[in-house]
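**Polypeptide and fold**
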Amino acid sequence: MDRAAYASMNAQEGEHWWFVARRAIIDSLIAAHIPLGPDARILEAGCGTGGNLALLAHHGTLDALEYDADARALATARGIGRIEAGALPGAIGFGETRYDMIALLDVLEHVDEDVASLGALGERLAAGGRMLVTVPAVPWLWSDHDVLHHHKRRYTQDGLSAVARNAGLTVQASGYFNSLLFPLAMAQRMAHQLLRRAAPLDARPSPTVNAALQRVFAAERHMLGRVNFPIGLSLYAVLSD
């Protein structure tokens, strides 16, 4: 990912509406789909600058891998969990440890070999373990944002499920999210394209707007599993071996 994108992520993860609301949704998905005991072992594959570490560590003993040295240093500075250098699909690390949950949160779109990466992570699941994957959705929404963040692709629900099946995994649950704000995001991206203006670097809006967007996005945590959104800016999948 672009150096400026990592710096922006590290600065924004604590308060930006997207990161805060997404963590609430991830926590809700874990509670709904991934039973974890008090001694659960958890791996975050591709932890970036560490914005999800505190959330994941709340659910068990946490390991995390990160390829980029600068992002890894920022994550390590948080003092949460055990963080090591690693890469997908062939350098997961942490010996032969098997995990009750593996989190791959907006990472799969960055790797060249998505099928091989899911397959390699699936081999590290403990008996009864689950993998939680989130990715950007809707390929035709490709924009400067994707280029800035070095995305290789965006996914459809069927496409993500096919990648999981080709990796030898079973889809336990999947669906779109960040759906309530989809019309607003689509209008914004169309405006940037029409005006031929680069999208802003994930800048946090005014406190009032930031709080409003956070409430709307986070509200979806009460709907997932009850409402099947037909489209959204993101996708989740819960996988098993």
Summary: The chain has a mean pLDDT of 91. The longest strand covers residues 125-136. The two ends are 30 Å apart (CA to CA).
